[in-house]
Amino acid sequence: MVGEERVSTGVPNLDKLIGGGFKQGSVNIVAGKPGSGKSIFAMQFLVDGLKRGEGCIYISFEERKKKVFEDFREFGWDLEQYERTGLLKFLENTPEQIRRVVADGGGTLEVIATQIGAKRVVIDSISSFSMLFQNDSNKRGASLALFEIISKWGCTTLLTSNAENEDGIDLDFEVDGVIFLHHQMIKNSRERSLEVIKMRGTDIPNKIMKMDLDKKGITINPSKAVSL
Ligand SMILES: Nc1ncnc2c1ncn2[C@@H]1O[C@H](COP(=O)(O)OP(=O)(O)OP(=O)(O)O)[C@@H](O)[C@H]1O
Ligand SMILES: [Mg+2]
Fold first, then answer.
1. What does the pLDDT look like over 93-129, one tens digit per residue?
2. Nearest CA, atom 26, ligand 1
């Protein structure tokens, strides 16, 4: 169930532009090209929850835990520590395993979510899950079933999605919020920017904002509009 309470995105300056954050229990997508910062955004969202003592689940179809933990150490995120204390569950699942979770109406994932008292879930990426299905109607059906299961636990969900541009985002109609990370050539240099494409029940900014990605993670500068 999507509630009125808001859950911080973990990205400084973004929450106040979208009514305080993602809606509690909502399903959201962060989309973009390879290297646009989707996985970093997704982990930053979880780290915000971990710092507040919330249980978090990261389901990775793309990368191994060891590598992800190593890469994210650079941002000062001690994910091993959160895993040791039982707040973080990093699952190196395959899309097929998640399909089984859907078929079982929650299955092993529900056991884990209950055990750690999960409040936030990331699936990196939903594109890999979508590829299991041959036609749009099956893909839509399975994805909605998955979202419903996660919402039932009261978790706020963030999915990463591979897309070349805003028009190519899969499942954008099915989710509550969509954020696009641009990484475009502007006057001979590649610039990062962030665009809130939709956020149900929320007044959203009507401009594309400059985004920085450095060892502090992702930050945005709302006063710097970017024209692409
Ligand atoms: N410490 C850092 N400082 C600056 N930029 C960094 C740092 N660490 C990573 N990056 C940038 O972030 C990019 C990776 O971000 P991320 O893994 O979130 O992308 P992604 O959108 O998930 O990509 P993919 O679709 O390949 O999974 C790197 O290609 C690099 O440009
Ligand atoms: Mg990634």
1. 999 999 999 999 999 999 999 999 999 999 999 999 9
2. 34
The pick from 11, 30, 33, 40 for probing ligand 1's pocket by mutation, whose C-beta has the most ligand atoms within 8 angstroms, reads 40
Asked whether residue 1 is domain-assigned, the answer is no
Q: Which domain holds residue 117?
A: 6-225
Q: What is the pTM for the complete model shown?
A: 0.97
- Residue written as token pair 């009261």: 154
* 115 domain-assigned: yes
Is 18 in contact with 199 (CB distance < 8 Å)? yes
What residues does ligand 1 touch, defined as CB less than 6 Å away?
32, 34-40, 62, 74, 162, 213-215
Spell out the alpha helix ranges (H) of 106-160: 107-116, 126-130, 136-152
**CATH code of residue 130:** 3.40.50.300
| Domain count for the chain | 1
Q: Express each pLDDT in 165-217 by its tens digit.
A: 999 999 999 999 999 999 998 888 899 999 999 999 999 999 999 999 999 99
Look over the chain and give the mean of its residue pLDDT values, rounded to a whole number. Answer: 95
Distance of CA 75 to the CA centre of its chain: 17
